[in-house]
């Protein structure tokens, strides 16, 4: 089962800087082949189909806990896309072409079908596909795939960071560089325990430290790259048999934390009348409020 909180992992800057093309670039980190939809669903189905989970519990616990974090990453990237899109258009009467400003946006689907919100697509508008899921059933093969997947995701994050200076995009990408780096090292350590091969000697891939990115360095200074969460109040604690020792890049001690990190409130998305979203007028809102009060037997 999953437990959900009305929070996201970090605070995303609330700036008035609409940039539809930045949003399109960030979409790659959501619905691209190496995006968060792919990492989530790869680990999700590997966890569903895991063989001999009692005998291989530390590996099972690792995949289970990282799966939960990836769900939060899908959520976080989606809100980054939304922040980049916010304010791209303004309300005018239909005959005044209120969406004219975005007709040449690289990814017009944000405006035609998404009411200026994130979609499960890549940066070119291609829908995410389940064909991106790899689950061989072989523990070492799956761990090796996951290591490669996280390295590919890291490469794409670095490129998107270099592609836009939008504060919301950079804040989220910087954080995800750090947390994705945790997953890279975690799978490398798991492979070392499973095979005896010191895969951690390969990191970082690409060979550029997270500390080179301002929005990632600030999290590494806080030790965020050394912590692995169980994302469960009581389960998956045996990941400490894998996530132990020191970080291969800076030698800091690694730490397993039972539970989830503290989050921040999910940002409010204002109405977009020109997109007919949410499509509830002030008068209709009053009627809805009246019906809710009646249903709850609430008196003024």
From TrEMBL:
InterPro entries: Ferritin-like, Ferritin-like_SF, Mn_catalase, Mn_catalase_dom. This is Manganese catalase. It comes from the Bacteria. CDD domains: Mn_catalase. GO terms for molecular function: metal ion binding. The keyword Transmembrane helix does not apply. Its cofactor is Mn(2+); Ca(2+). Keywords: Calcium, Capsid protein, Manganese, Metal-binding, Virion. Ca(2+) binds at residues 61, 232. Belongs to the manganese catalase family.
């Amino acid at each position: 089962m999953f437990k959900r909180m009305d929070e996201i992992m970090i605070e995303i800057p609330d700036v008035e800087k609409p940039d539809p093309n930045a949003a399109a670039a960030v979409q790659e980190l959501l619905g691209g082949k190496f995006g968060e939809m792919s990492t989530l669903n790869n680990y999700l189905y590997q966890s569903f189909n895991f063989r001999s989970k009692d005998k291989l519990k530390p590996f099972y616990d690792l995949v289970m806990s990282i799966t939960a974090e990836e769900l939060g990453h899908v959520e976080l990237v989606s809100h980054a896309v939304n922040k980049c899109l916010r304010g791209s258009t303004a309300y005018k009467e239909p005959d005044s072409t209120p969406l004219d400003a975005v007709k040449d946006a690289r990814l017009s689907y944000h405006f035609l079908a998404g009411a200026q919100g994130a979609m499960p697509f890549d940066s070119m508008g291609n829908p995410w596909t389940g064909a991106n899921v790899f689950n061989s059933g072989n523990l070492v093969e799956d761990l090796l795939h996951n290591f490669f997947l996280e390295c590919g995701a890291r490469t794409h994050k670095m490129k998107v960071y270099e592609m836009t200076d939008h504060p919301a995009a950079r804040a989220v990408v910087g954080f995800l560089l750090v947390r994705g780096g945790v997953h890279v090292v975690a799978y490398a350590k798991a492979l070392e325990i499973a095979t005896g091969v010191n895969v951690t000697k390969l990191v970082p891939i690409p060979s550029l430290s997270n500390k080179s990115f301002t929005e990632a360095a600030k999290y590494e200074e806080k030790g965020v790259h050394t912590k692995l969460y169980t994302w469960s109040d009581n389960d998956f604690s045996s990941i400490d048999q894998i996530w132990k020792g020191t970080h291969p890049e800076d030698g800091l001690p690694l730490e397993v934390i039972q539970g989830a990190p503290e989050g921040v409130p999910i940002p409010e998305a204002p109405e977009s009348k020109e997109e007919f979203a949410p499509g509830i007028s002030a008068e209709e809102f009053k009627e809805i409020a009246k019906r809710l009060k009646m249903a709850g037997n609430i008196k003024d």
